[in-house]
Specification:
It is built from six helices and 51 strands. The chain is mainly beta. A four-stranded mixed beta sheet has the order 1-7-6-3. The protein has a four-stranded mixed beta sheet with strand order 9-16-15-12, with no helix packed on it.
Amino acid sequence: QAVALILVLCVSGMRAETARYSVPEEAERGSFVANIAKDLGLTGEELLARQARLVPEGEKQYLELNQRTGDLVVREQMDREELCGQREPCLLRFEVLLENPLQSFRAEVRLTDINDNSPLFLNREIVLRMPELTTPGTRFLLGSAHDPDVGNNSLQHYSISSNEYFHVYTQRRNDGGRYAELVLDRALDREQQAEVAFSITAVDGGTPPRSGTALIRVVVLDINDNTPVFTQTLYKVSVMENSSQDTLVVIVSASDLDAGTNGEIVYTIFQNSEENLQTFKINPETGQIRLKKPLDYEEKKTYEIDVQATDGGGLSTHCKVEVQVKDVNDNAPEVIITSLTSTLSEAAPPNTVVALFNVRDRDSGDNGRTTCGLTGEQPFRITLLAADAYALVTSETLDREQVEEYNVTVEARDEGSPALSARRTLLVRLLDVNDNAPTFTQAIYTMVMSENEPAGRNLGRLSATDPDAGENARVRYALVPPPTGTLAAASFVSVDAESGTVRSLRPLDYEKVRAFEVTVRAADGGSPPLSAQAVLRVVVRDENDNAPVLLHPAPDSSAAGELVPRWAPSGYLVAKVVAVDADAGQNAWLSYELAKATEPGLFRVGLHSGEVRTARAVTERDAARQRLIVLVRDRGQPSRSATATLAVALVDDFSDAFHQLDHDPASGQQPQVAEEELLTTYLIASLCCVSSLFLLSILVLTASTLCKARVRAELPPPSPSCYVDGDFASDCVGSTGTLSPAYRYEMYLTSGSGRSEFQFLRPILP
């Protein structure tokens, strides 16, 4: 019955020893050996769940494991003599592998011998020639019987049938084998009996015992009174196991004092072992013993050869030759993989088991001692579990993004001289874990879209990469919802989830939205997903979609009236045309030109200022009423424009102002003289008041000019909203332009005669 010393094999903190069982040879298939589950402290369900299996040391599987019951049974009938020969003990080694977690238990089954073989003599008839003068007590070596069984079942003793001349002794060799020596009890007399015949029986120690017999015929020879004598009764030699065929082992030598044919010696190897006859040969004349085939230390370490020297008269003697086979490092180590995990998660912690393997070397001594290691710099190491049993484990954390797979080479080397080695390469592939977030190629993406561009326009493409693999590397894009209460810029553009292409969702007005920013998220397909964010800035490019807007003169007035005295010199400021353009850049750069005039040579317009000035001094020949059309044009492509109409009255003095402006030749009506005279009176009276007010205005104007320069930098930019009907808005005082908005004039004229009053109001100052 099995004696189980099960010690658990495990990696990272568990120990391992060997469980031992026994089973008789020739056991029937299905015979019970042991219960593995009971010895391991596991149930049949646990064995089944952990996929328990046997891994034999050799190529053939003689045992099998019932995963449901945990019974270890015989799978194939075993012959101990065929598997192990004379070696004792005869062991079948195997490992029990469990998964989840990965564990290995070493065990061995000893095949116990049964008495299934009888002793057998190599020769059924043994012929001995003895001279009649052989003295009683002389011993004669007999051919041994062969019994392949071992222990008590092997050959134990010899016996011979009853006779009056001989008895037999059973002798024991150093290797445990037994052989027979025939002892002469009384002197022979050829004249009385020329031949003595009897049987010899070899008996083993089995229950019941088995035996084999052979016939011994002793031929009595005539007188030959000197037997050959060996120089040594025991020859001890050693031979290297890698010696080739016909290598000389030893030379035995014997001499005989007789002369003639009685002194001629012939050497033979005594047939006490079939293996010896197949391995060695002897020259019958010289006594040279040579190899018939190469030796193998791993198969047999010692040979005992019985050599017989026989003279021509039939007398013989024998000696023993002990051949010690010397081990040579002729066997490289073997790396035997018992379990391998070919795919490993990159998140596996250090000391994770990758493979279990054994290293075996058939040599002995230093030639059979092995060391094991890894070649190259890799994140693995080898852990010794038991004698010649190792585990390949991870030594540090792994990163699939740096190395996707490893070719791990295990090298086993013995300590022989020269040392032999063997290598085994294991392919370990890493499985991806979502441990890397996507990465944008830029932190901020800037794209440009044109004003009024239709929806669906491709603005550009975002790009993010993820070094992971499979779904963990699949990147999807999405806009991050803006905080509540902020500009809903996410409604202006869309991002394709797969490609990252950015498209416009609706046309935009540069005058309302000049640029906007959205946050884009790139998330991978892992579980849980990882993400990164980038800023998408979209700049709206201005298009020339706004024509200039006239602020002065007002576009809704038919014509603006201006008064110019006839004494005005060249360069006299008549008026200033003020316009703005809601566009930006070049599209908002305005230029002014005189498109049409009653007298083109009298007036000129500043190209950039819009100031209308006299091009020459006014003369008496110039018409009293002048009509000017000023064209305002931007620099867009195509350009847009607007026109302003100015009515200019040339007066000798301001008393003629109303008459010049109010007179319409087409009407055919003349103002009444009385009304004109009345108006003149009013004007003269008003002129005196205005003159005093004018002097006061000059003083105020000087003070305001000094203050205006100080505050102009702090004032907001010009806006079309500043130029409205009525009084100037308070926030428009500091607006920039070609004509300072600080000066605005209003004229009030009464209907009636040319003497109507007019008032020159004070400038509106900040």
